[in-house]
Amino acid sequence: MKQLLILSGKGGTGKTTIASAFIKLADAKAYADCDVDAPNLHLITGWNAEPAKTDYYGLPKAEINPELCTQCDQCRQNCRFDAISINEKYVVDPFACEGCGVCAYVCPVEAIAMIPAVAGELMLYSDGEKAFSTAQLKMGSGTSGMLVTEVKKQMKSAAVDAGLAIIDGSPGIGCPVIASLSGVDMVLIVAEPSVSGISDMERIINTAAKFGTKTAICINKYDTNIENTKKIEEFCKKQGLPLIGNIPFDSNAVKAINNGQTIVDIDCASGAATKKVYHKTMNLLFEKGGD
Amino acid sequence: MTIAVLSGKGGTGKTLVSVNLAATAKTSIYIDCDVEEPNGHLFFLPEGVQEEEISVKIPKVDNELCNGCRKCVDFCKFNALAYIKNKLIVFDEVCHSCGGCIVVCPEKALTEKEKFIGKVQKGTSGQVTVYTGILNTGEASGIPIIKKLLAEENMEENKQVFIDCPPGSACIVMESIKDADYCILVAEPTLFGVHNLGMVYELVKLFNKSFGVVLNKCLEEENPAEKFCLEKNIKILGRIPFDTKLGTLNSNAEIAVNKDEKYRDMFSSLMKTVAKEVRCNETTTNP
Predict the structure, then answer these.
(1) What percent of chain A shows pLDDT beyond 90?
(2) Are the C-beta atoms of residues A264 and A24 closer than 8 Å to each other?
(3) B223 contact A CB<8A
(4) According to the model, what pLDDT value does residue B281 have?
(5) CB B247 within 8 Å of CB A224
(6) Residue B22 has pLDDT above 80, yes or no
(7) Is the pLDDT of residue B4 over 60?
(8) Is the predicted pLDDT of residue B287 greater than 60, yes or no?
(9) SS3 for B227?
(10) Which pick of A29, A42, A129, B247 has the fewest CB atoms within 10 Å?
(11) Antiparallel, parallel or unpaired: β A214-220 and A243-247
(12) Do B253 and A194 touch (CB under 8 A)?
């Protein structure tokens, strides 16, 4: 299975819009939304049936039994996450607790138990032919990287025979992005011609390079700032990175999305440009000796 | 007064709103907590920048003392340690710095060393103090940087503080809004925007924060984000129209309120509304 991951660094540059168009164009048998913090791909991929849902357990959370607790303060002193406070009795803040288990280990009277905690929900849409794996992290939860890994695992096991997988990533460069990068064959970066967008693009390119992942770039809304588009083009040339297409700003794109359609479902300029980017991406992804 | 600006979805205009509000408030503090992709400094171009490296503690093995008991390997919930070919190996990137391995090692073979994960910069731009957190590429978590950014010593009294949050609704956002007195949710009028607005709406409610919504990129057409606010009875603080000139200024990292009176008026009036809301919420302790 060849896996294509779509990233951007900056949020809102058009990852999901482009991922959904690619899924449509490829008639993809396997795809996933790894933006578990703010998943959106399910809104426009046209599945009517309810997904199969599984609770995702992150690391357990510490709980202090006040009847056993002798208030020796060992747990509070050893907690690196400031998760334990004294409020008449010793209590754990479940949002701050990372589940490391140090408090339970140092407690001399075994007053602390590690209780399993649901950190999110995995969802799998599948009809025997296609599989779409996605998830929703619980509010304020902290194990998004691990959930991303589960989303990809779920996709792969549900569509073992698929030759191509398209993965929509999350913004940023941190743990969910790093987790989504592992094992993919190529990254397509959706850049935006703004000063912020260029700065963020450079950071995500550096991150992908650290993992040695093959990278290509396309510029979305390229005509909103031609000067910055030129800067991105020059940057790519200098770095020897393939810039595989420019997609224009298109008010029809917003209309399509708001109707639950992809931009290649309607006849529009952004859809036509995305088709070209798609073909170039596939050529790069499947090129011989490209591994 | 500390105001956090968040959105769930990326690219809805968090930086636009927080930068322009901070510039409108004049003597204010702007803190960029989007440490994975910080952009506020590109607008403010702060001067006199002082830099502080931020580090976390990770374990260091003394192979002379390690007897291969693997207690640390078994204890580590993050799989950051492995004993391979008679040697203990630490995977720095996945270490959460909980210190558990050091506590459990019976041979005292593990100590801690500092590992740099990024930096905090402080500078000034006019009367705005600008704090920027920058996570090094390849690092997983920027939370220690955010903790440093929001440390009390950075909060000067009688100054408005604006926190530019990261996208999403995970731990990193929670950490950014923890001490905020008020939250501004920035929403764009798309299906995606509304879905993610719904998520941060749940988040601010969960943490019992007072909040209101700024509708960005408003068009003449029906606005699904506005509809959401009306249905949920959420205070709409202001509307920023979809505007090519504003878009161009913003994409060139210009601070709109310093460039055009029209935008100065728009953000001043938004600032007034926000201040009024904050005062209201202060008098009614339970929003």
Answers:
(1) 91
(2) yes
(3) no
(4) 78
(5) yes
(6) yes
(7) yes
(8) no
(9) helix
(10) A129
(11) parallel
(12) yes
Residues 150-179 in B contacting A (C-alpha not used; CB under 8 Å): 166-174
Q: In angstroms, rounded to a whole number, what is the distance separating the alpha carbons of residues A126 and A152?
A: 14
3 state DSSP class of A191: strand
> With an 8 Å Cβ cutoff, is B102 touching chain A?
no
Cβ contacts from A onto B, under 8 A: 179
ipTM of the complex: 0.91
Chain B residues with beta carbon closer than 8 angstroms to that of A203: 36-37, 137
**Chain A contact probe: residue of B56, B73, B98, B115 with most A CBs at under 10 A:** B98
Residue B225, chain A, CB below 8 Å: the answer is no
Give the whole-angstrom CA distance, residue A257 versus residue A268: 12
**What three-state secondary structure class fits B39?**
coil
**Residues 30..49 of B with a Cβ closer than 8 Å to A: which?**
34, 36-37, 39, 42
Radius of gyration of chain A (CA): 22
How is residue A89 written in tokens? 């009795």
Quickly state the pLDDT bin for B284 (edges 50, 70, 90): low
Q: What is the pLDDT of residues A114-165, one digit of tens each?
A: 999 999 999 999 998 999 999 999 987 877 899 999 999 999 999 999 999 9
Task: Give the tokens for residue B171.
Answer: 């731990």
- Chain B residues with beta carbon closer than 8 angstroms to that of A13: 10-11
What pLDDT band is residue A180 in, cutting at 50, 70 and 90?
A: very high
**Mutation target vs B (from A57, A105, A175; most B CBs, 10 A cutoff):** A175
Distance in angstroms (rounded) separating the CA atoms of residues B196 and B178: 19
Residue of chain B with shortest Cα separation from A17: B192
Model pLDDT, residue B285: 52
List CB contacts (< 8 A) between B251 and chain A: 192-197, 224-225, 228
Q: Which long-range contacts (CB under 8 A, 24 or more apart) does B272-279 make?
A: B273/B212, B273/B237, B273/B238, B274/B3, B274/B21, B274/B182, B274/B184, B274/B212, B274/B237, B275/B1, B277/B182, B277/B210, B277/B212, B277/B235, B277/B237, B278/B1, B278/B3, B278/B181, B278/B182, B278/B210
The pLDDT value given to residue A85: 96
Residue A290 has pLDDT above 50, yes or no: no
Q: Show residues of chain A in contact with B168, CB under 8 Å.
A: 35, 37-38, 144, 170-172
8 Å CB contact between B176 and B146: yes
**B170–A141 C-beta distance less than 8 A:** yes
Tokens representing B261 are 């009176």
